[in-house]
Specification:
Residues 14-69 form the HTH deoR-type domain. By secondary structure, the protein is of the alpha/beta class. 39% of the residues lie in helices and 22% in strands. Strands 6-5-4-7-10-13-14 form a seven-stranded parallel beta sheet, sandwiched between helices. Strands 1, 2, 3 and 11 form a four-stranded mixed beta sheet that branches.
Length: 264
């Protein structure tokens, strides 16, 4: 911080200011224009111009008073399935602790939710409805599961089905618990997705479920994606990793009923 102030006093070039703002975004997820203006000893107008340029480059999303880092989750499903496998396994082990026998579970697509499917114990006596072919394969031929695969269009690089067919089927379900996939999550901006049809299906899943749970790797926290799904307050259970800083954890606990840290 001191080094930044000294550099600002000596006069930073616009490119240097923009790079520092991007570094703050990557470190904190969210930045405030007023705080950046004070730190860089420049005007809020200048900071907002830099944020607008960074948003045009796809690095962030403008929000009231500042900006949010764009989530890094906009990758093909095949790539995401091989990323952070151990971390997702720990999140999954924590997430299945809230599952109870005889429940109807709605399991959204996504690599962490595939890990949740694998972590569900045998003889769990569950009905699992999922739009994820990968999750379905983790449950087939295992005792204690009645598995229903939601149909529909599977886009290139996508992790599951969506579109009109999937939406209609989800609207006919009344689930006890939904493990919702989230591309991005922020206490103020809520849950977001990268695809408009995916966001629509997620909203239908929320409406069809008694409780909503999300298991989230740390890089998705305090980030944004283009299409809003739900407010943070709509989430009943949020499972996070152990590396979430205390201040960030407190901001999550202020909006979510149950924030649970997945221990190693």
């Amino acid at each position: 911080m001191q080094r930044t102030r000294q550099e600002a006093e000596n006069g930073l070039l616009p490119e240097q200011r923009e790079q520092l703002i991007l570094e703050r975004l990557r470190a904190n997820g969210r930045v405030l224009a007023a705080a950046l203006a004070a730190e860089l000893q420049t005007s809020e107008h200048t900071v907002r111009r830099h944020l607008r340029d960074l948003a045009d480059q796809g690095h962030c999303k403008r929000v009231y008073g500042g900006a949010l880092l764009i989530s890094p989750a906009d990758k093909p499903a095949a790539v995401r399935m091989n990323e952070a496998v151990d971390r997702k396994g720990r999140l999954a082990a924590a997430a299945v602790s809230i599952v109870r026998p005889k429940q109807i579970i709605l399991l959204d697509a996504g690599s962490t939710n595939v890990a949740i499917a694998a972590a569900l114990p045998d003889n769990a006596n569950l009905s699992v409805v999922t739009n994820s072919p990968e999750a379905c394969t983790r449950l087939l031929n295992r005792p204690g599961f009645d598995v229903i695969l939601v149909g529909g269009r599977i886009a290139r690089g996508a992790a599951g089905s969506f579109g009109a067919t999937a939406l209609l089927q989800i609207q006919q379900i009344r689930a006890d618990l939904c493990f919702l996939g989230a591309c991005a999550f922020d206490p103020d901006e809520g849950v977001a997705a990268f695809d408009v049809e995916d966001a629509e299906l997620k909203r239908a899943m929320i409406k069809a479920s008694g409780q909503i749970a999300i298991a989230l790797t740390s890089e998705k926290l305090m980030t944004a994606a283009p299409f809003a799904v739900a407010s943070a307050a709509a989430v009943d259970y949020l499972f996070v990793e152990t590396d979430v800083p205390a201040a960030r954890l407190a901001s999550l606990e202020a909006v979510c009923d149950n924030v649970m840290v997945a221990r190693s």
